[in-house]
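Q: Here's a chain of 282 amino acids. Please give me its 3D structure as tokens.
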Amino acid sequence: MGWISDELREQVLQETVIVQLISEQLELKMSKGYWWGRCPFHNEDGQTMFVSPGKQYFKCNRCGESGNAIMFIMKKNQLSFPDAVRFLEARRAKITHGTVYVMLLADDHYFVGYTEDLDTRIRAHFCGAMDVACDFHDPVKIIEKHEDVPPATEKEIAQLYRNLHGARRVHCGGLDARQKENDPIPEMVTNSNAGGFLLQLEHDKYFVGYGNDLQKAMRAQYNGRGCEWTRLHRPVKILRTLRSPLPETEKEMTLQAMRDFGWENVRGYRWLDVEIKKPVML
């Protein structure tokens, strides 16, 4: 009950990080630039609900429930609109201040993040456990940090850097380096033919790939329509296949193959050039 002003509504939405809010209610996992989890609004075990950190929006691809942070709390906690706004306002007041930092990435890219434990966050960056942007641009070093600030400072600093360096070079929070504001709503990957594969090549070399059609993706490497690495070192045999709807399977298989056979002898995921540097994850 009670009237809620537009100013308060907008302030609450602006200062609520929807990924953090929903992760307090259920487990989320990153895939293809979005966070996915089990939808709490219908009975199904699959990860059918995604959360977009860029648009501050959630949607279930099964039951269709969707909306912003206020709508999530209204539905999940069975609250009225005014009560949901007050719930988020009270939650915001309890959030302790933390550190906003700027990480220089390879290729003149930048990552702006907020954390209450900077040391743990830095380790996550260099261990490959962070944002998708850091999978494509290796972390280099922290170049700026602001301590004892509210979470909203993250967006302010990110906007400053985007004004200086361009939106494509500056990544903020869970936002995928490839995601744009007009990206279509993602659909769940349900293709049972999708998966990763490990090929043994000539000259004791190896290649890891992934495709929505596993057989077609492997044939492309055998037929000379794949990457330069498999044209230089022709495929000899298939060592392993793994059916999986998750594209990050390719990353996991590539890093494991590099550990098994030496990173110099393996190409896959984003390490496809003939000449590469040792991945920081190894």
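Q: Can you summarize the key feature?
A: Residues 98-172 form a domain with the GIY-YIG endonuclease fold (CATH 3.40.1440).
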